[in-house]
Amino acid sequence: MVEVLLIESNEALCAAISAQLRAEGFTAVAVRSGTDALKLLNAPRFESVLLEWMLPDMDGVSVLREMRTRSLDTPVMVLSSRGCVADRVLALDSGADDYLLKPFHMEECMARLRRMVRTYRRSEISAAGLHCVADLTVDTARHIATRGGRRLLLSAKECAILEVFAAHAGQTVSQQELEEAVMERGAAPGIIPVYIHYLRKKLDDGYRLKLLRTVRNQGYVLSAS
Fold this sequence. Notes:
Layout: E1 3-7, H1 11-23, E2 27-31, H2 34-40, E3 48-52, H3 60-69, E4 76-80, H4 85-93, E5 98-101, H5 106-127, E6 130-133, E7 136-139, E8 144-147, E9 150-151, H6 156-167, E10 172-173, H7 175-182, H8 192-204, E11 212-215, E12 219-222
Parallel strand pairs: 1-2, 1-3, 3-4, 4-5
Antiparallel strand pairs: 6-7, 7-8, 8-9, 10-12, 11-12
Helix pairs in contact: 2-3, 6-8
């Protein structure tokens, strides 16, 4: 369950957003001041923060700056009635991930929140050495790959090639780049297509969605689209 910290001084709006968060399946923790928020943020546990600009004890930008000073990378959406460009720029430059102008539609707020959580989770996965493409997961720390929850039985070279593709998912990787990344000096020229052939069979055979494709005269791409 995703925990969201809501920092909103308006009692009615705080209650309405909290109720909507719970209806969307989030766990909502609500506070009414920046001081209380910073106490809770001493122990990082939230996957997103909704932060009002105008708080009774300090402005939301000060809370945001303190979070970033503490190296907290939790995504933050600023909720504000301040609509001028300079205010939006200030919030974003201070570390906000999004800025939503009051009054707003609750549906839009929740959609933006879901996007922030998805982005944050993807960045955490990549930082942990995990890369996901559709139902494929590549663990570069343990050199393990699974598709649809089933482990792929790869040779060391096949795994090394797949890890290069996973780190550059959606981008075309040339044969020369693969040779430089995973092959030893003196390796037989043209050996990469042989490894690609075996890797593709293990990765894509039996699956409707083919992830590894050849880009004519350019190389290969690992992609779900």
